[in-house]
Input
Amino acid sequence: MSSSISRLAASAVALALAVSAGSTALAQSAPLSAQDSDPRVMGWMQGFPPPPDRMITQPDSVYFSFPRLRWSVCHLREFLPTEEISRGLGAPVPLDYLPPADFADMRQQIDALTFLPQQSDTPMTWEQSLFANYTDGMLIIHEGKVVYERYFGCLEEDGKHAIMSMTKSFTGLLAEIMVVEGMLDDTVLVREIIPEIGDSAFASATVRQVMDMTTGVKYSENYADPNADIWLYSAAASPLPKPEGYTGPDGYWEYLQQVEPEGNHGDEFHYKTINSDMLGWIISRVSGKSVTQLASERLWRPMGVEQDAYQTVDGKGVPFAGGGITAGLRDLGRLGQLMLNRGMMNGERLFPAEVVAKISAGGDRSKFGSGFPTFGAGSYTSQWWVFHNDHGAFAARGVHGQTIYVDPTAQMVLVRLASFPQAQNGFIDPTSLPAYQAVAEFLMANG
Output
């Protein structure tokens, strides 16, 4: 396990997908609780210098293994090179909050809410679910006002947190904006935009198939298999010097040029991170700008965010479009509110309402399959997850518990940042999705 995690620690790409190899082993015995694994309780990186057994370093340490990851998710810039998503020089646009007394009362009411987890007849409170899911930050916006905000673990209100595969939704949103605005044709083949893709399996896929992850490309993210494609991708993307004798691809884009086919394009949805990096390359080539520059110009600056974000890069400076962003909790709430408002923010239209209309309508549900039983009969489009529930909810999601959950019916945006011991959201959904529904119904009844 340690050798696998060491390779993970040396790669930017695997950060978004996390330590399934380590998580699986840890799942064999109960991990420390959220309270006991709190980085302040553990004493990680405290002192000048910290004690040797409390240090978390790169590349020697398994810095993304539990419980170290509970500190590392707030400190990725200390391990990997990054590129800034600039907020610009203007003053932030403040979020609107409930009056202090009402805010405090609302927190107590929400914390006391009860719900039934999936496949359980034992009630759980909202506050219990926060600790059960190793929550680092929780923000709820209802009808444009912040009604709930809490911080745990490594995160404080001026801090930033890795959002893992929620990065994909940034990339997909930028692509959908370009499609709706006529800058990008989603019916063309990848090779028409990126001739360098050569004979890669991506060459004959359409842009839309890349956006919706219905490509037929060979790529395994099985961390338990030392020969899985994820490790080849990790080695290619690592910003560290390549080991002596290394002959593989150098960087994300070189890897994408050698991807082999598996199945037919358009047949089924297969969640594979390489689609997101292919999409990042496409929108960068068409726009002439990096995904970090696009995110800054089209989202971060006009939203009036509080903090710059940043995104990890490979050894050639290419941003990790599939999972490299770190950002502040409130700014992620602003993005969720932008989606709820269908492109409107601070009285200005940032992009056409059709962008969110297309995303929230979802993809082809017949292609979604049955591989996500805790998620339900949903779909995936433009790198966003769509629930097709009674509230029309859709979400950006990342491993270890990251989410921006948008509920148009309840006029609610919920952002959770977390450091759950296991990577897959299937372990967290049973005590998360019913909680989100419960708080949405509460806010609708008491708003």
